[in-house]
Amino acid sequence: MSKLVLKNVARHYGNVEAVADFSLELKPGEFVSLLGPSGCGKTTTLRMIAGFVPPSEGTIEMDGQVISSPSGVVPPERRRMSMIFQSYAIWPNMTVGENVGFGLQVRKLPKAEIERRVDKILDIVQMRALRDRYPAELSGGQQQRVALARAIVVEPEVLLLDEPLSNLDANLREEMRFEIRRLHDEFKITTVYVTHDQGEAMVTSDRIVVMNKGRIEQIDPPQVLYAKPKSRFVAGFIGRTNIVQKDGGTYSLRPQSIGLSTSRPAGNAVEAEIVGRSYLGEYWDYQAKPLSETKALRVSAAPSAIFEVGQRVWLEIDPAAMVRVE
Amino acid sequence: MTVSALPTAATPSVRSRGFDPTWLLWIAIIAVLLFLVVSPFLHLLVTSFKSEKTGAFTFANYAAAYGRERYVQALINSLELGACAALLAGVFAIPLAWAVSRTDMPGRGLVRTLVLATFVTPPYTGAVAWILLAGPNAGWLNKLFVMLTGAESGPFNIYSFPGLVLVIALYSYPYIFIFTTAALELVSSEMEDAANILGAGTWRTMRRVTLPLAMPAILGGLIICFLEAIALFASPAMIAIPARFNVVTTQLFQFFGNPVRVEVAAAYAMPLLVVTISLVVVQRIMTRRKGFVALTGKGGERRPIALGRGRWLMFGYAMLIATLSVFLPYMFLLQAAFAKAWGRGFGLDNLTFKNFHFVLFEHATAATSVGHSFLYGGASATVATIIAVGVAYIVNRRLIPFADGLGFLCVAPFVIPGVVLAIGFYSAYAPPPLALYGTAWLLILAFTTRFLPIGYVNANAAIRSLNPEMEEAVRVLGGSRMTAMRRVVAPLLKRSLLGAWLLMFIPATRELSSAIFLYGPTTKVVAVMIFDMSDEGNFEYLAALALILQALTLPMLWIGQRAIGRDFMLRRTAT
Questions:
Q1: Are B291 and B91 contacting, i.e. CB atoms less than 8 angstroms apart?
Q2: How are beta strands B15-16 and A72-73 bridged, if at all?
Q3: Residue B217: in which H helix or E strand, if any?
Q4: A48–B contact, CB cutoff 8 A
Q5: Contact at CB, B472 and A50, closer than 8 angstroms
Q6: Which residues fall within 8 angstroms of residue A159, CB to CB, at 6 or more apart?
Q7: Contacts by A219-223, CB closer than 8 A, 24 or more apart
Q8: Residue A58: is its pLDDT beyond 50?
């Protein structure tokens, strides 16, 4: 049975359609990301799952029970979920230990049991030593760990994360991605993760829901999403791509699917001129304009493959790498 | 291990939308605000059109109120007084504000403290002190002048229009100071650096960049000062009446004398109300105008401007103002409070403690009046804090439709001068069915309404600074909205609400302009007591009582500074 089911969920604010016709099923223990640019409706969807926002249409079910519908919602406090907020929402008037123990206190667990669980989870997020500190004395990354511990310690039915890493600096963000996935592998909590960062979504998720303008563009595992984007939007949003027109169809062609050589290769190839290039350390980003075209293609090449601007080259294109998009 | 205290998967029920308990709260708050704000205002309006004898609709009250030239003259006097006092206060406040917030003038902390001391001096206490200082003949400054020059008599006469302007300006300039410092502290040094690097010197930069950026706030402060001056009752009553001219508030007081002509008073109060409302609207538009980035953006880095030798000149100017508003007045209040007769000077043979003993233990009502002030002030500050927090929370969390309307009602009393508010409360609740006249309730309710805007502005600022995600985190983890209020919102708001409470309590303990119309024989407050003593000419007792009131304020200031910061009374949200 599915853990969480969203059926044709929609949310309007006046005439504005924030989310439309959103359907999604999560298996128990699955990690799903909602990915899209700001204003695409991903946070509204998350807040509908949490119970803060009632849907205008459709239903949300957990374990087969309707928890949200236009006629009423189970309030957030009775959903047995946890949520990690963009601001972390660590309560500054409570110590790390009190923050983490709060949910267990609300559940009226015995004091000793609360202590034990708080210590255990703080060990797991490596924050045990800071148990009696107040949040104002913690760094952003440490606050993030407290937020994670506080959300996980209650063993929620569903864990919701709302852009949890957007306030961290780049290095820490990278590290916390793996941390979140590690905790998921350890606890197997069904998770919905909202982000606008494709890297975060790809590292953490079993499946990714790409959203645009309140609608679902595509739902697939990261590899499929990258290899077989269904729409121009997905192709452009997940990684870099070239959109090419061929035989009346629109195709996505990834820069690294194009081979570059000075002599004509055996396969399907066109002659082109290098019109621009950038060196990015891990690879070269060339702009190569086929002689018969007006628009340049972006081509990735190894750092050792050096071509000069103005040089004639051959582009080798594998027809199988061309993915037809809408 | 499963957490089982919460409903299990089988039980969650979908709550129906039919009845929501927040509606009850909504209705209760609307009822309270109708009672405290809307009803007195409507009664004021209705009363002004009601015939005293028949209760029928009439314009006769307006005819009576403006039928005589001297009534109209009083109105003109008020406007002139407001304008002159605001301008003079600007001359005091603006250089001081600039020097304190933007320059390396020495003793900036001291100057702030002295402005605070001025601010917490009730206008009537200041007026009495200046009567001691510059009363014709007997005033200390006149005596000094005679002693130094050998002239027949001194040149100073506080019982005059300029005298009244000076006294009002001296005790209302802190309003402009607060507005101006708040604005100047938002002008970043980078904006001034940009002018400097293009070749402008310190003075030109101040004239072309800094002051224009702060101008809307300065004008706003001038307007508030003007409104304070025209709404003031005590100083005009003590100074203008002996000087044989009237202003609106003293004229209103006379309409309220025997027999009480509340209908005429209501009609006569209308222009004051109209002027106040329009100017507050102008002030709001001005200080909120977009485009003045300096007032909306972050402060950025600020370095004090080096004044060179001019810094001592500036310090001298600040000390001159402090001498006029704090040093001299308190020196001679102290002298009078400890003197057998204040005119006999500083000699040891004139020293006595009996004035304090008399007002505290012998006078029939003086000590109880202090108790009343603190009791009514405490009650009204508490009620107003509760209402303000409730409404601010509802408005910020958008718990109910049209919540902004409730917020508006909470700040609306700001535009109603104290005397006018009192007339509204008198006509609404003095007669049956409530018949509150002579009871403490009438004063408590009026004080609550009068200071509610201060409470609301502060509560609103405090709640706005709380990220709603803090409460959502509680709810997601299984806590109710009440748990969120108790465990997170209340602890986080504690300090700022204590501050809001003090900001209402302190002025409420010294409130005169609404109390003078509403007190009864058993509900006299200390401000009324002081006013009566000035009427009787008992300056020694009066000085002792006024100093007791000031001494009682000190611990509250200390608590406020400990709880929410050194300048808590000199912030924009304080006025």
A1: no
A2: antiparallel
A3: helix B211-231
A4: no
A5: yes
A6: A81, A82, A83, A84, A151, A152, A189, A190, A191, A192
A7: A219/A24
A8: yes
Between B553 and B3, the more confident residue is B553
Return the domain boundaries, chain B.
353-575
| Overall CATH class of domain B353-575 | mainly alpha
Average pLDDT, chain A: 92
% of chain B exceeding 70 in pLDDT = 93
Chain B positions with Cβ closer than 8 Å to A: 1-3, 5-7, 9-10, 12-17, 467, 469-470, 472-480, 483, 487-488, 491-492
List the structure tokens of B444.
């408590």
pLDDT tens-digit readout, B52-107: 888 888 898 998 888 888 899 999 999 999 999 999 999 999 999 999 988 899 99
Residue B19 binned pLDDT confidence (cut-offs 50, 70, 90): low
- The 3 state secondary structure assigned to B376-437 is HHHHHHHHHHHHHHHHHHHHHHCCCCCHHHHHHHHHHHHHCCHHHHHHHHHHHHCCCCCCCC
Is A75's Cβ below 8 Å from some Cβ in B? yes
Q: Which residues contact A39 (CB under 8 A, 6 or more apart)?
A: none
**A with B: how many residue pairs have Cβ under 8 Å apart?**
106
Cβ–Cβ < 8 Å for A41, A19: yes
Task: Identify which has the larger pLDDT, A153 or B3.
Answer: A153
Q: How confident is the model at residue B368 (pLDDT cuts 50, 70, 90)?
A: very high
The residue-averaged pLDDT of B326-355 equals 89
Mean pLDDT, rounded, for A16-43: 94
Domain boundaries, given as residue ranges, for chain A: 4-232, 241-325
**Cβ proximity of A206 and A219 under 8 Å:** no
The CATH class that applies to domain A4-232 reads: alpha beta
Q: Scanning every residue of chain A, which has its alpha carbon at the shortest distance from the alpha carbon of B481?
A: A77
**Which tokens sit at B293?**
């980035």
Q: Residue A220 in contact with residue A59, Cβ under 8 Å?
A: no
CA distance B115 to B134: 22
Query: What's the pLDDT score for residue B106?
Result: 93
Packing angle of the helix pair B418-429, B248-255 (nearest 10 deg): 20
Flag whether pLDDT at B9 surpasses 90: no
Cβ contacts of residue B88 below 8 Å, gap of 6+? B165, B166, B169, B173
| Token pair 């001068």: residue | B417
The answer, yes or no, to whether residue B15 has pLDDT greater than 50, is no
State how far the Cα of B203 lies from the Cα of B218, in Å rounded to an integer. Answer: 18
What's the sign of the alpha-carbon dihedral B377, B383, B386, B391?
A: negative
In this predicted structure, the answer to whether residue B300 has a pLDDT above a threshold of 70 is no
Q: For residue A50, which of A29, A23, A73 has the smallest C-alpha distance?
A: A73
- Fold classified for A241-325: OB fold (Dihydrolipoamide Acetyltransferase, E2P) (2.40.50)
Q: Does A116 touch chain B (CB under 8 A)?
A: no
pTM for the whole structure: 0.82
Helix axes A140-152, A96-106, angle to 10 degrees: 20
Predicted local confidence at residue B290, as pLDDT = 44
ipTM of the complex: 0.83
**What's the rounded Cα separation, in Å, for the pair A70 and A54?**
6
CB neighbour list of residue A324: distance below 8 Å, 6 or more residues apart = A249, A250, A251
User: Would you say B513 and B528 are in contact if contact means Cβ atoms under 8 Å apart?
Assistant: no
pLDDT band at B209 (very low <50, low <70, confident <90, very high): confident
